[in-house]
Amino acid sequence: MKDESFKPYHFVRYRWWKRVDLAMASKDLGELFNVQAIEMPRNRIEIVKDEKDELRVKADTLWALLSPFRAVLYQREAAPFTRKDMELRKKIMELYPKERSSPLPLFFKKEPKFEVSERVNNGRTG
Q1: Number of C-beta neighbours around residue 96 at 10 A
Q2: Which residues make Cβ contacts (< 8 Å) with residue 3, sequence separation at least 6?
Q3: Cα(27)–Cα(102) distance, rounded to whole angstroms?
């Protein structure tokens, strides 16, 4: 049963220095999740052409939108995380280890609360 006090999950993670290879991430994540490549239009004089590509990854209730330096984890509707959702969250946290967009000590943001399905953790919430 869905707890109406929880909002849909939304959290942004970052990588600072070395970009995520989206082709490799697609291959790795595609073994467990539904992965869709999103290619944005380009013009030939752009300097950061490769920064426009994204991946959309879906577990059960959790989605991730990945770019080379940023990942947005989100739910369309609030729901407890399933085992598959928790696995996607874990993989994204490993790929994008930072909670801030830069090394400067600005823009702190805590991960929002979320529920975990009783089948995953015997009724505890995280």
Answers
A1: 22
A2: 78, 115
A3: 27
Beta bridge partners of 10: 74
Cβ contacts of residue 52 below 8 Å, gap of 6+?
Answer: 39, 40, 42, 46
Supply the angle between the helices 22-29 and 83-95 in degrees, to the nearest 10.
160
Q: How many CB atoms lie within 10 A of CB 108?
A: 7
Extents of the domains making up the chain? 10-39+50-101+114-121
**3-state SS class at 57:** strand
The size of the chain, in residues, is: 126
Torsion, Cα 54 58 61 62, to 10 degrees, reads -40
The predicted-structure confidence for 38-54, as pLDDT tens digits, reads as follows: 877 766 665 555 566 89
pTM exceeds 0.85: no
- Distance (Å, whole) CA 78 – CA 117: 12
